[in-house]
Specification:
There is one protein chain. By secondary structure, the chain is α+β, with helices and mostly antiparallel strands. The chain folds into 2 domains: 197 residues, no CATH class; 154 residues, no CATH class. The chain is 30% helix and 12% strand. The strands form 3 sheets. The protein has a 5-stranded antiparallel sheet, with helices on both faces. Strands 5-6-7 form a 3-stranded antiparallel sheet, with no helix packed on it. Helix 4 packs across helix 12. The longest helix has 15 residues. The chain binds 2-acetamido-2-deoxy-beta-D-glucopyranose (2 copies). The site of one 2-acetamido-2-deoxy-beta-D-glucopyranose has 5 residues, from loops. One of its GO terms (cellular component) is Golgi apparatus. Belongs to the FAM20 family.
Amino acid sequence: VLGFLSVTLFFLLSFGREAEVSASQEAYEDVQWTSDSNSHPPWLRFHLNISRWQLYLHRDPNMEPLTQQLATHRIVSAVQKSGGTQLKLVMSFPNYGQAMLKPMKQERDEETNYNLYYFSDFERHNAEIAAFHLDRILGYRRVPPVAGRLVDVVKEIKDITTDRKLARTFFTSPVGNVCFYGQCSYYCSTEHAVCGRPRHLEASLAVMLPDLSLASRRTWRSPWRRSYSRSKLAKWETEPDYCSTVKKTPPYDKGTRLVDFMDMVILDFLMGNMDRHHYETFEKFGNNTFLLHLDNGRAFGRHSKDEPSILAPLEQCCRIRRSTWLRLRLLSLPQYRLSDVMRASLFSDPLHRVAPLLSEPHLASDCCSRNYQQSVQVSLLINLKERLCNLISIWQS
Ligand SMILES: *[C@@H]1O[C@H](CO)[C@@H](O)[C@H](O)[C@H]1NC(C)=O
Ligand SMILES: *[C@@H]1O[C@H](CO)[C@@H](O)[C@H](O)[C@H]1NC(C)=O
């Protein structure tokens, strides 16, 4: 495990948490943590138990309290997260836990406009939530836990924020809803304001990873990154033998990196995410470690069409991790159909009470099943396996 314990406790006790925590000290609880993990709040237990292979355990007893707190714990501070392209807030809880909030911007059954490039698509709060569930169902456990929440934008953001730039963007819409838009490089304007109904706003809250000063991360450019240009194609789109180059290039030439990458490709394909230009790992674990699946807000944008190009790496390299392959096969059995498992899993999210997190067309198609055996996605994988993948080496991982 990361073994942050002593450093984290020292850091917290001596400095409080980050400059971003700026609410008055009375809002926070007194810290009475010892080396006994029973005395730790769920977020700290989560941080301390991150391992080289996964963010949390299969059947982790800490997951329920952790997501429960994300969904219900009192919010004592809300400030904008600097740096991103779209509006995000860092929320703090009385026990010094923190979460990243992404607001609802789009109705669930709306599809991304076909004329919009993937890099200018909205980030969706429900995609963040659904990605966490899908990643867990696939057995990866590489997405930080996320829960949905109805946030009172007045009491839980406007009234408590110390972020003046954020506070200045609040207004009341013509129908009396409280709205705000914050500051960022995409969609932070009156025309793209996020609005409560009249003050309750749906949002996703993702638990923050350990601070970068405690657990630095390395960012890797995806070899199958899209060109992010309206006119150019990427190398992988034009070179048929692209994978043989990648396979010879460190770190894809050794260990499990290539199959780890394929795991991420499968997740992205199932949720229609074209925006995976980079990925991250924890520096401390070196190259032989899992890939973090962060930033999934642009997934689940379309349910009426799959995007086969997301599978290009799998098609070109013809590699898949054995445990992932077995999991996909399991999720294709009638009793474990991916769409059913997803539906049941999403049912546990608090926002499910407001409305199902993925609209039925999504569950019936994009995400998972397309009536399972006919599933374009899964059958594509199966065909890949059968047509091309006599070559697949069985990876021990
Ligand atoms: C941390 O992980 C270990 C196994 O790796 C497990 O036994 C323990 O219960 C976990 N602790 C917490 C607080 O979740
Ligand atoms: C990890 O991969 C990078 C990039 O491929 C390489 O430069 C570095 O030497 C590798 N580190 C180890 C410990 O193998």
